[in-house]
Amino acid sequence: MHVFNGPNLNLLGRREPAVYGHDTLADLEARCRAVTDDLGLQMCFRQSNSEGELISWVHECGESVAAGDSLGLVLNAGAYTHTSIALRDAVRGAEVPTVEVHLSNPHARETFRHHSYLSGVALGVVAGFGALGYDLAIRGLQRTKEQ
Ligand code: DQA
Fold first, then answer.
1. Domain that holds residue 91
2. What CATH number is associated with residue 59?
């Protein structure tokens, strides 16, 4: 299981806490690890502010999935969600089963957050439940293995 976080999510805890909560990225990682441990899965948790780095990581994730070493990707691409055709192409091109996750509900925010380039290539989308959304996304991705 891979969990990737995009730009500005390294600032969690002090970035707009009214929107994103008080948990830090380290808190989020610990929470995700508790879930993957519970499911008996390995987890690779990463954050980058760079679009190109995220794309390269998606490619790596695709190789892990093809090798049977990962179930896929939980992806909070931050603002790249709304801007990056390249990240969408990476998810599709590398054939990575992906769940899109957002801490906030972008649809209840500014109109420029209403469109996601990722949703159309995602297995599912979880938004608006804060850190709990990562738990749900991980468990949702795990369920696809059982189907
Ligand atoms: C976000 C929502 C995006 O619109 C925003 O740019 C982020 C965080 C979220 O988790 O709610 O950086 O992905």
1. 2-146
2. 3.40.50.9100
Please state the rounded mean pLDDT for residues 9-36: 94
The SS3 of residue 99 is strand
The CA 80 to ligand 1 mean position distance, Å, reads: 9
- pLDDT tens for 62-114 read 999 999 999 999 999 999 999 999 999 999 999 999 999 999 999 999 999 99
pTM: 0.97
Confirm whether 134 is a catalytic residue: no
Domain count, the chain: 1
Closest atom, ligand 1, to C-alpha of 20? 11
Q: Is the CB of 104 under 6 A from ligand 1?
A: yes
* Cα distances (angstroms) measured from residue 39 to each of 32, 72, 91: 11, 14, 24
